[in-house]
Amino acid sequence: MRAALRVVLGSVLVLCTVFAFAAQTIAPAADGSATKQAEVSFQFDRTGLPVPRFTLRIREDGTGRYQADQAETPATANSMRGQAAQHIDRPINLTRGTVAKIFKAARAANYFNIECASKAKNIADTGKKTLTYTGSDGSGSCTYNYSENKTVDTLTNIFFGIAYTLDEGRRLEFLHRYDRLGLDAEMISLGQEAEAGRALELGTIAPALALIADDTAVIQRVRLRAQKILEQVATENH
Predict the structure, then answer these.
(1) CA pair distance 92, 203, nearest whole angstrom
(2) pLDDT at 7 over 70
(3) Maximum separation of any 2 CA atoms in the chain, in Å
């Protein structure tokens, strides 16, 4: 019964995300006119990474979209099956707390109408990053490799934390299908990253976690770790 309930809850989370994203992004203003929702986006590009480029777009109601290009992953001694290159395009729905932090920071940074790139020399290439704000109250954009602006740095870490979780969700789905034994180390790593604050918005991968938690073919400790994260997600959503 509990297993069936978790599957249903996972399905509901997926449907809620899809319906929320499908809803109109035009909301009526106080005078009855239509006003486009404010949106913050983060774009990342760095050749040579497993996910060399991605874009996250977040609206102020928490709905958004994640688009990424995942590079081909060859088979290794630890993983006998590689992964083909793929383009990801999926709706997401974030918690109110994270959305509030993103928009508060964006407005504090003057809608990104600032010089956010560090002028220091000999900085390692950590990838091209672009923050953009669009809304009825303002708009702007700035691009950087590394920024000494604390607000920009905070936003960068938030968006990387969300992207990490989404990438990890795909990894868990792959291992669940092709290498269940590999889930053990992967779930340990996810738990550690979540505790360190580097894996954010775990609710975005709740359906994948629910399938693992309910699969009796998966070893018990992995199922328990997945269940623990799902319980954490439920707490964050209340």
Answers:
(1) 9
(2) no
(3) 63
Alpha carbon 95 to its chain centroid, in Å, reads: 11
* Spatial separation of the C-alpha atoms in residues 193 and 202, rounded to whole Å: 11
Distance CA 14, CA 91 (A): 10
Q: How far is residue 227's CA from residue 213's CA, in Å, rounded to a whole number?
A: 6
83 DSSP assignment:
B
Kindly state the helix (H) or strand (E) to which residue 164 belongs, with its residue range: helix 150-178
> Which of 39, 42, 97 lies closest to 63, judged by CA?
39
The pTM of the full predicted model, rounded to 2 decimals, is: 0.83
For residue range 132-155, list pLDDT tens digits in order: 999 999 999 999 999 999 999 999
Domain boundaries, the chain: 2-22+41-236
220-236 helix and 206-213 helix, angle to the nearest 10 degrees: 140
User: What SS3 state is found at 42?
Assistant: strand
